Amino acid sequence: MSAPRKVVVLGDMLELGPESDALHAALAAPLQAANVSLVILVGRHMQVLYQTLFEKGFGRKQLERFDDPDEAALALPSLLRPNDLILVKGSQGVRMEKISEALLAENEDAEQVLCRQTPVWKGKPFVPPAEWQA
Questions:
Q1: Does residue 95 contact residue 12 with C-beta atoms inside 8 Å?
Q2: Using 50, 70 and 90 to split pLDDT, how confident is the model at 134?
Q3: What's the CA gap between 35 and 7, in Å, rounded?
Q4: Alpha helices, DSSP H only, in 5-123?
Q5: For 10-66, how does the pLDDT look when each residue is reduced to its tens digit (9 = 90+)?
Q6: How far apart (Å, rounded) are the C-alpha atoms in residues 103 and 7?
Q7: Alpha carbon distance 37, 22 (integer Å)
Q8: pLDDT tens, 100-129?
Q9: Is the pTM for the entire model greater than 0.85?
Q10: Residue 46, class by beta-carbon neighbours within 10 Å (0-12 exposed, 13-18 middle, 19+ buried)?
């Protein structure tokens, strides 16, 4: 797909075990090949990808990393531009639906277009995954 800028928002991939660092780092090559303009990373495991991308030539202005989805969602308005093409992907435990909701236009109804929008689910705060404690 073509767009003035391609933006990727990636949350940690969880439950990968001892291969976690290598699998996160391996995402660098496809991101480079896709000519991504901005990479926004969410979660502790994404620090590995952040460092890998930086070492492969991505500049600090092309990379952002946040500890949790709430922090990332608050920062999005200052990072994005009109007509950006945005991909959001991450494990359910990183609660990337918070990012998707922050991206909706004011006139869009989150309950109609997104998953996990029930009052019960939305009332649950983000809880860092247990594997972040290891």
A1: no
A2: low
A3: 10
A4: 20-25, 28-33, 46-55, 69-79, 97-103, 110-113, 119-122
A5: 999 999 999 999 999 999 999 999 999 999 999 999 999 999 999 999 998 999 999
A6: 12
A7: 23
A8: 989 887 777 877 877 788 888 888 888 888
A9: yes
A10: buried
Question: Both tokens of residue 118?
Answer: 């029930």
**Could you tell me if 39 and 10 are in contact, meaning their C-beta atoms sit under 8 angstroms apart?**
yes
| Separation of alpha carbons 129 and 12, rounded Å | 10
How far is the CA of 45 from the CAs of 40, 67, 105, 127, in angstroms?
13, 9, 30, 15
Give the pLDDT score at 38: 97
Six-digit token string for 5: 């800028």
Please write the tens of the pLDDT for every residue from 59-88.
989 999 999 999 999 999 999 999 999 999
Tokens of 128: 């860092």
Answer left, alpha or beta for residue 15, where phi above 0 means left and psi between -120 and 50 means alpha: left
Quickly tell me which residue has 């998707």 as its tokens: 100
In the block, residue with structure tokens 């660092």: 21
